[in-house]
């Protein structure tokens, strides 16, 4: 039985509220500290649509949020790949629920409300700058001069994590994927069945789209980019200028041309440069530990970023609940998570490479698509282990080196 009774969670985006919920259910009182001043402008307001894989939705059961999240999400029952005028249906993984797509702000709102209902406290405008550890606890220091103390401190503070630096000043930072991401809803209606997501390889860039419930077509685009731009830099460029670039890039594509032409600058979501986390050597030190994008951020190509963050929050809480001390709990947590998340990240990296094919690859791709679908894109070989993964909340975690 754990001796941990209190926890400070740094970061109020997705991983933070889920981790706090799971800790609360494990009997550990958690307070979430968010750097932004309010929920409306906080981490949940940044970014576009997220995909929740079946394993991520399943993990939400452990914190009682599955039904509330699926109620605001759009199910994706089938997918297809398109290159030029060639379109081919992609095989689906049998025996799993559909992928769910949901706007990040809406997901954040639901998780925040659920956490509050369970007794989780939130502190806003609370930006972490330092932490001091003792044998019995950890004290967090914030930019406004305030402090907070608890038995453990959890870094759920995203890809530019302050907690990661405090754990290991030499820890790697995020890496640029070479892609810049955008999203919008076009007025153009694509001629595909609702619940179908299409992955399209245009002449100058990759994009995806699906029919939006209520009308129009939601699309996301990844443009090749020479240098990374922060979100602030990307959003400093007028949206109309970005839309002109997108229209020029996808003007030769169908339906890319129509999607860009019927989208408006005021609705364009500039998501920014896509970045990933390389393997992080140290996930914890003393009484501090990392979850979510702070320690494992695969590209959004994986469709697993949010789902893995949810899983990690739940698994961390299980380990702290069942093991007698912080050291053994953190060790078990890493044992449960590292191999899984790094395998997903490696798969996503391969997909990113394919998103920006050269002229020869673009020429060959329509010919190779059927072979790729039958072999390299077989879901039983590529994503079965990811999507069928399910956490048994009630099963006790032991210090044995078992992975499940």
From TrEMBL:
<keyword id="KW-0560">Oxidoreductase</keyword>
<dbReference type="InterPro" id="IPR036188">
    <property type="entry name" value="FAD/NAD-bd_sf"/>
</dbReference>
<dbReference type="GO" id="GO:0071949">
    <property type="term" value="F:FAD binding"/>
</dbReference>
<feature type="domain" description="FAD-binding">
    <location>
        <begin position="7"/>
        <end position="347"/>
    </location>
</feature>
<protein>
    <submittedName>
        <fullName>FAD-dependent monooxygenase</fullName>
    </submittedName>
</protein>
<dbReference type="Pfam" id="PF01494">
    <property type="entry name" value="FAD_binding_3"/>
</dbReference>
<dbReference type="InterPro" id="IPR050493">
    <property type="entry name" value="FAD-dep_Monooxygenase_BioMet"/>
</dbReference>
<keyword id="KW-0503">Monooxygenase</keyword>
<dbReference type="GO" id="GO:0004497">
    <property type="term" value="F:monooxygenase activity"/>
</dbReference>
<dbReference type="InterPro" id="IPR002938">
    <property type="entry name" value="FAD-bd"/>
</dbReference>
């Amino acid at each position: 039985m754990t001796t941990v009774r209190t926890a400070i969670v740094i970061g109020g985006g997705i991983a933070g509220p889920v981790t706090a919920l799971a800790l609360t259910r494990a009997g550990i009182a958690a307070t979430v500290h968010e750097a932004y001043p309010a929920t409306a402008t906080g981490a949940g307001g940044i970014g576009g649509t997220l995909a929740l894989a079946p394993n991520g939705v399943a993990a939400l059961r452990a914190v009682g949020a599955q039904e509330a999240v699926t109620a605001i999400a759009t199910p994706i029952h089938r997918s297809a790949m398109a290159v030029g005028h060639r379109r081919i249906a992609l095989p689906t993984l049998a025996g799993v629920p559909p992928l769910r797509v949901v706007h990040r702000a809406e997901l954040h709102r639901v998780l925040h409300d659920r956490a509050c209902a369970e007794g989780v406290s939130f502190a806003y405008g609370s930006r972490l700058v330092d932490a001091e550890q003792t044998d019995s606890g950890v004290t967090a220091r914030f930019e406004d001069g305030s402090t907070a103390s608890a038995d453990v401190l959890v870094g759920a503070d995203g890809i530019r994590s302050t907690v990661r630096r405090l754990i290991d000043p030499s820890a790697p930072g995020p890496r640029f994927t070479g892609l810049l991401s955008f999203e919008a809803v076009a007025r153009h209606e694509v001629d595909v069945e609702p619940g179908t997501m299409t992955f399209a390889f245009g002449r100058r860039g990759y994009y995806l789209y699906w029919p939006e419930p209520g009308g129009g077509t939601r699309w996301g685009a990844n443009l090749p980019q020479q240098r990374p731009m922060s979100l602030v830099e990307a959003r400093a460029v007028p949206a109309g200028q970005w839309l002109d670039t997108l229209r020029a890039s996808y003007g030769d594509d169908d339906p890319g041309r129509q999607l860009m032409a019927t989208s408006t600058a005021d609705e364009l979501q500039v998501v920014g440069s896509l970045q990933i986390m390389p393997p992080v050597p140290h996930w914890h030190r003393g009484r501090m530990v990392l979850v979510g994008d702070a320690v494992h951020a695969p590209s959004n190509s994986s469709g697993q970023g949010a789902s893995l963050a949810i899983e990690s929050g739940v698994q961390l809480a299980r380990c702290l609940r069942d093991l007698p001390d912080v050291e053994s709990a953190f060790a078990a947590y890493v044992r449960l998570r590292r191999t899984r998340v790094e395998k997903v990240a490696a798969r996503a990296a391969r997909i990113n490479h394919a998103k920006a094919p050269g002229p020869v690859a673009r020429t060959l791709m329509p010919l190779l698509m059927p072979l790729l679908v039958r072999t390299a894109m077989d879901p039983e070989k590529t994503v079965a282990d990811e999507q069928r993964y399910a956490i048994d909340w009630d099963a006790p975690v032991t210090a044995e080196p078992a992975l499940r």
